[in-house]
């Protein structure tokens, strides 16, 4: 093994092992889900600013009761996206409500169950900003099954969009990561590190495209 390209699933589990590998002279390049305190090159998008502008978009569409289905608390991206969400609310003087911040994981069932819980608790909301596309699809599925119209009653937007966001009805507004460019950049950096082990680690922030679709129009 010469080097490792790594997207973190947990920001503490195996952290010491990663550091041990680096001390042995095996380079690690982190991409997408990274760890700020790890001594390695990192390739990512600006989760904070993309979340901020997505929530701002929802607010400018007249939404003020915005749920954020967050990611797991052990992923760094989660906190960056929460901060973007909160700061966008603050910009428009919309009070932050703790009940609107719901840890929902990353999969379809998590999104569906989170929205079911909100409806059963009679928590009013007019928009949902999701950590992932899959949780957005789960949320969308529950809303449509219960007769709630998208976007007339509730708008939905998400991070980490893929082709799936274009294949459903209504199509979903999403931040789409430059996956191929991220992979190419990470591969290039690790090759450079192998050729020059003394090379200083880099943090490269790539742009991501926000695609506005039917779910928020």
How would you describe this structure to a colleague?
- By secondary structure, the protein is of the alpha/beta class.
- The protein has seven helices and ten strands.
- The strands form two sheets. It has a six-stranded mixed β-sheet with strand order 5-4-6-7-8-10, with helices on both faces. It has a four-stranded parallel β-sheet with strand order 1-2-3-9, with helices on both faces.
- It is elongated, with a radius of gyration of 19 Å.
CATH topology of the largest domain: Rossmann fold
Number of helices: 7
What characterizes the major β-sheet?
6 strands, mixed
Secondary-structure element string: EHEEHEHEHEHEHEHEE
How would you summarize this macromolecular structure in one to three sentences?
The protein has helices at about 15-25, 45-60, 75-90, 110-120, 135-145, 165, 180-195, and strands spanning about 5, 30, 40-45, 65-70, 100-105, 125-130, 155-160, 175, 205, 210.
Task: Sum up the structure in keywords.
Rossmann fold, 6-stranded mixed sheet, alpha/beta, single chain, 217 residues, 4-stranded parallel sheet
Topology readout:
Blueprint: E1 4-6, H1 15-23, E2 28-31, E3 41-45, H2 47-60, E4 66-70, H3 76-91, E5 101-103, H4 108-120, E6 127-130, H5 133-145, E7 155-158, H6 164-167, E8 173-176, H7 179-195, E9 203-206, E10 209-211
Parallel strand pairs: 1-2, 2-3, 3-9, 4-5, 4-6, 6-7, 7-8
Antiparallel strand pairs: 8-10
Helix pairs in contact: 2-3, 4-5
């Amino acid at each position: 093994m010469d080097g490792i390209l790594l997207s973190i699933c947990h920001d503490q589990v195996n952290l010491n092992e990663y550091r041990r590998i680096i001390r042995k002279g095996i380079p690690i390049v982190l991409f997408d889900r990274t760890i700020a305190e790890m001594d390695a090159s990192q390739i990512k998008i600006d989760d904070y600013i993309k979340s901020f502008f997505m929530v701002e978009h929802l607010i400018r569409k007249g939404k003020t009761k915005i749920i954020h289905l967050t990611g797991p608390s052990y992923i760094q991206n989660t906190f960056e996206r929460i901060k973007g969400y909160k700061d966008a609310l603050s910009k428009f003087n919309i009070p932050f409500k703790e009940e609107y911040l719901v840890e929902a994981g990353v999969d379809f069932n998590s999104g569906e169950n989170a929205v079911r819980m909100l409806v059963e608790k009679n928590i009013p909301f007019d928009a949902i900003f999701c950590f992932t596309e899959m949780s957005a699809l789960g949320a969308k599925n529950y809303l449509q099954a219960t007769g709630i119209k998208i976007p007339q009653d509730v708008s939905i937007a998400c991070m980490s969009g893929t082709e799936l966001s274009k294949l459903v009805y209504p199509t979903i507004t999403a931040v789409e990561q430059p996956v191929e460019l991220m992979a190419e950049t990470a591969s290039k950096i690790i090759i450079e590190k192998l050729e020059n082990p003394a090379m200083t680690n880099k943090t490269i922030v790539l742009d991501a495209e926000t695609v506005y679709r039917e779910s928020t129009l």
